[in-house]
Amino acid sequence: MSAKPSLPQSLWAATAIAPGHYPEARGNITVQTVVVGAGYTGLSAALHLAAAGQNVLVLESAEPGWGASGRNGGQIISGLKIHPDELEAMFGAQAGARMALTMGTSSELVYSLIDRYGIECHDRRTGWIQAAHAPVAMDDMLRKRFAQWNARGVDSKLLDRDQAAAMIGCAPGNYVGAWVDPRGGVLQPMSWARGLAAAVVKEGGRIAANSPVTRLREEGNRWVVETPAAVVSAERVLLATNAYTDHLWPGLRQTVVPVSSFQAATVPLPEDIRKTILPGGQGVTDTRRLLHYFRLDHTGRLVMGGRSPVDDDPTLADADSLRRAIARTFPQAAGVPLEFVWSGKVALTKDSLPHIHILAPNLFTALGCNGRGVANAAMFGKLLASLATGTPPGELAIPVTAPDRFLFHAFQRVGVLAAATYYRVLDQLETQRRGTMDTWQR
Prior knowledge:
The chain is α/β, with parallel strands linked by helices. It has helices at residues 11-15, 40-51, 84-91, 93-104, 106-117, 135-150, 161-168, 189-202, 271-274, 320-329, 373-388, 412-433, and strands spanning 27-36, 56-59, 75-76, 128-132, 157-159, 177-181, 185-186, 206-208, 215-219, 222-226, 230-239, 257-266, 283-286, 293-296, 302-307, 338-348, 355-360, 363-367. Strand 14 and strand 15 (302-307) form a beta hairpin. Helix 3 (84-91) packs antiparallel against helix 4 and helix 5 (106-117) packs across helix 11 (373-388). It starts with 10 loop residues before the first helix and ends in a 9-residue tail after the last helix. 47% of the residues are buried.
């Protein structure tokens, strides 16, 4: 039996800006706010708190961007997965509209922070493409998104089969159409995380790396946060661990299901191939339940992502499904070798919406990016900071709710595998039924 291939470094870690130096937390420390987790949510929360003059300390078990924030596809996607009209039906006209419009500006928040702090993350503000794999997706999802967001002032576009193929650079048979959201874009996700961390320090906040929180307890009217080498006393605590939430707070881990998503990146494409793929520089996500997402990075590599066949530590030997996806979507790149493969965790919630909770007095959390963390997590952090510093829960753009645990969470691995099999069959059936690629135009 051949030896298991070694794990290559992720593309994003290999090409990111240099990390900052963040020493381990040691000794007795007193601060106003402790943020647990140095991903996008935690770093955004800490940045907004520090900029407002708060004495804030971020405790990270590894280094900033170690989790999904440094391992995602780097696609900047505004808004939530739920359509704006549906949000208004779910939460009421006023609250639903506020939720839709606030989260619809999440990409603007990303761009403003990049500009304000001069973050070098190879961002391209060229829009985001959602490509329909079947007519039902075009009709039930993308046409609705187009109509509802355009009614709210977004100059988005619908593309037919041939227009989508031209913008994406794929064969016309791949997608029946697409929706183009001009608010979106792409960036280097690890560089974005490291840039946010540097901005936190610039505003006077502190970050402690290699400082996993081992215990959290109340002591009088303060919180005591313990790490292996430090005891931190704080007025308030923000938990920002998302898909990597553990047992630190009872029951919180059971409110999300972490799902592994993995990506592969080719070597830099030859120029004659590179210029045929996404010439406008957008990122693309398709509408399959087990979706694929792809883009070019700043070095000219093609990055393809999808459902992981393994929970952690994928190798090049695990990437056959992504090789096939590249060959099917971009035949011109079928023979280009893969150079990187890596994975990360996505936090899914029951309702596909993010959740903000007040777990106890002065203990707050936000989690559940549902695969849209680059822009949305930056907004979650801003909202979390606002809530922690006195904004009434009823005035927050995302409703503050009680934690809602998944039943039988201990068996979530089995459930995820069963759901993946079921969704794969549905996706295949919808694709097979689509007939001619311009059926949706009738």
